Q: What sequence folds into this?
């Protein structure tokens, strides 16, 4: 495993003309941020040794290197979801490669269903903590010596970055929610009983990504900031049909706000 990670990192290092310490996983709500990256050079996942290949339609699947907010960055356009059939090792492989490349801070975004009754469709939620509800743990198996066998998770989402994001959002007049994200395997959206269960468990929002990458980033000593767009609501007695299209539409509408906060935070981080 370690050998494969290093092989991929060495391949990328030969192609890279910058040394970014900031990485972004361009999840739902952040897609347009890719267009703001300057001095770009891109490498398709299919051309990177050992990289999984993105199966979701419309996700081109590439690494983008360049500048954003005056900083050297690397961005993942297209992520690997567990529901697509990838193993946890595959889902989190790029994060381990980031560690080898010298990344210190990771920014992530996603779409999620709100279980907190105070939330509205289109809200942005700064992720303050998560619950791992995936059926398999990404660190299961022989420990890779990027971090301890039993990693601490008391500050999985960097408190300093959360403070900065709050200040940025306030200065921009953008209201943000805070909350706990529960990561579940999907690909079904939740039944009313499942939304209720997640609420009772302490989640404010539920989605199908992020948690594996954040766990591995923490193991690797990479600090994390994450934001979620609330694209639908799973509130007791009010659960209605959800479709991928509705999720996409709500995310597109919230995108400018999320992008504005992330752009500025990346600059200041
Ligand atoms: N549940 C799970 N994943 C999601 C949801 C949801 O309601 N909305 C967007 N991603």
A:
């Amino acid at each position: 495993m370690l050998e494969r990670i290093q092989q991929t990192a060495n391949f990328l290092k030969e192609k890279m003309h910058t040394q970014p310490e900031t990485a972004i996983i361009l999840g739902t709500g952040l897609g347009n941020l890719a267009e703001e990256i300057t001095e770009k050079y891109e490498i398709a996942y299919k051309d990177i040794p050992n990289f999984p290949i993105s199966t979701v339609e419309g996700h081109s699947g590439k690494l983008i290197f360049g500048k954003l907010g005056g900083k050297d960055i690397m961005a993942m356009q297209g992520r690997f979801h567990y529901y697509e059939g990838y193993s946890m090792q595959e889902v989190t492989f790029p994060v381990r490669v980031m560690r080898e490349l010298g990344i210190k801070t990771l920014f992530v975004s996603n779409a999620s269903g709100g279980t907190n009754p105070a939330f509205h469709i289109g809200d942005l939620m700064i992720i303050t903590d998560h619950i791992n509800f995936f059926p398999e743990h990404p660190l299961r198996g022989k420990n890779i010596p990027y971090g301890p066998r039993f990693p601490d998770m008391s500050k999985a989402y960097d408190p300093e970055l959360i403070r900065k994001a709050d200040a940025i959002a306030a200065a921009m007049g953008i209201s943000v929610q805070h909350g706990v994200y529960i990561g579940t395997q999907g690909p079904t959206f939740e039944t009313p009983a499942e939304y209720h269960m997640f609420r009772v468990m302490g989640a404010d929002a539920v989605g199908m990504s992020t948690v594996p990458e954040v766990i591995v980033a923490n193991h690797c000593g990479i600090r994390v900031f994450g934001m979620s767009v609330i694209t639908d609501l799973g509130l007791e007695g009010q659960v209605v049909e959800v479709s991928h299209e509705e999720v996409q539409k709500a995310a597109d509408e919230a995108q400018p706000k999320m992008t504005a906060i992330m752009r500025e935070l990346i600059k200041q981080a």
Remarks:
- The chain has a mean pLDDT of 93.
- The pocket of hypoxanthine is lined by residues 111-113, 189-190, 206-208, 231-232, 234, 242, 247 (CB under 6 Å).
- The longest strand covers residues 223-233.
